[in-house]
Design a protein that fits this description.
This protein is α/β, with parallel strands linked by helices. The protein has ten helices and ten strands. The chain has an eight-stranded parallel beta barrel, surrounded by four helices. A two-stranded antiparallel sheet has the order 8-9.
Length: about 400
């Protein structure tokens, strides 16, 4: 039998049937690994204080370390001035800051937004400016690798509470619209109830958060503000009642940061005046109950891992900052577990205290002169009116 050939004289190749496709042969990229929780989320108590960025962002970290903190709060820029685009943080500086923070194992890092921001403003120009300023705060917070950004809801002016809440919700949405949030979470802070400030009632904070449910948001509760707004956190029964109201209106799982401040103002005084821990109207015994309460803790199932207590207490004398941090650790029953503080360190040095005293003296003199001139003008106006009547 002769071999079959094609018309070209080349032997025909046998037809090979394609093998069945095996899905296992297809390339599959490895799934992205789940991000590890930050080191400060290991379940320990987190206690910090607001530290100064006056010299540099890095100095704020070093101050927290020297004061015996394992968490901290800072401003990302001057809190009492409108910032321009120049307030952006160079990436090289931010990278050094983030690396040093990791080395010190400080966390969470909380940033407090500019005091001039009024997300509830009924004045269109102020609202627009506040939205832009808050957007810039988000950008700086993300650049620094912050975990939380705290902002006051604002003052409603002549508008109703419901109108103001709607305005706040819309303002936060607009501010975060063009921002890459990363791991940042926005926290609305309760207020003491001064003037037309929104957020003195926990229900108002809860309504704002409900309107922002699609964004990474939560609440930061200030103990001095709660007390001044009429929430009795001083007594054992009052604390239990307040915790129930927080859980009902906001959800305790949505309160990762608590500003730990004693109050110079009595219960329901509706004025925001912070005092040293244990020296004010709330008192040391009440703070011990708050700090040791399981629902304000960091241990499951009642607590929230990583929750931080951050002091915003005054620094009247050098060492006040260190003493307030130490008091929080002591009242939490964790004095032995507290990070070691640097002896005699304070953000308020003797030289700075003298400089502040001189500034206050000059400011007081300036205000007195202004008041004197004002009285003189009023007196002159009355005299002129009297002369006209006689004439």
């Amino acid at each position: 039998m002769t071999e079959q050939k094609s018309s070209a004289g080349v032997p025909e190749q046998p037809i090979i049937q394609p093998t069945q496709f095996d899905p296992e042969d297809e390339y599959r990229p490895e799934p992205e690994p789940e991000p590890l929780p930050p080191s400060w989320m290991e379940g320990s108590r987190r206690i910090g204080i607001h530290t100064s960025i006056a010299n540099s962002y890095l100095d704020a970290l070093e101050s927290a370390r020297k004061l015996g903190c394992n968490a901290l709060q800072i401003f990302s820029a001057s809190p009492r001035m409108w910032q321009g685009g120049s307030a952006r943080i160079p990436e090289v500086d931010a990278q050094v800051f983030r690396a040093r923070r990791d080395e010190l194992r400080l966390g969470p890092l909380v940033i407090h937004a500019n005091y001039l921001i009024n997300l509830a403003s009924e004045q269109r120009m102020l609202q627009t400016r506040s939205i832009q300023a808050f957007h810039d705060e988000i950008v700086r917070a993300v650049t620094l690798g912050a975990d939380f950004l705290v902002v006051h809801p604002g003052a409603r002016g002549e508008s109703s509470s419901q109108q103001a809440i709607s305005t706040i919700v819309e303002s936060v949405k607009q501010a975060s619209k063009r921002a890459s949030m990363g791991g940042l979470r926005i926290l609305l802070e309760n207020t003491a109830g001064m003037g037309t400030a929104v957020g003195a009632r926990l229900e108002e904070v809860g309504e704002i958060l409900a309107g922002l449910r699609n964004l990474p948001v939560g609440a930061c509760l200030d103990t001095a503000h709660l007390f001044a707004a009429g929430y009795d956190i001083k007594s054992e029964g009052g604390l239990a009642s307040t915790i129930g109201q927080i859980d009902s209106a906001i959800g305790l799982e949505n309160v990762p940061v608590i500003h730990a401040n004693d109050s110079k103002i009595p219960l329901g005084g509706r004025v925001d005046r912070h005092e040293h821990i244990g020296k004010g109207k709330i008192g040391a015994e009440a703070f011990a109950r708050i700090l040791q309460h399981p629902r304000f803790g960091t241990t499951a199932p009642e607590g929230l891992t990583g929750r931080a207590f951050v002091a915003e207490t005054p620094i009247d004398e050098p060492g006040d900052d260190r003493r307030n941090v130490a008091m929080l650790w002591e009242l939490a029953g964790l004095k032995e577990q507290a990070p070691e503080a640097e002896k005699n360190f304070s953000m308020l040095t003797a030289a700075l205290q003298k400089k502040i005293a001189m500034h206050k003296k000059t400011e007081k003199k300036r205000m007195a002169n202004a008041e004197k001139k004002s009285r003189a003008r009023k007196s002159e106006t009355r005299k002129n009116k009297t002369k006209k009547k006689r004439g």
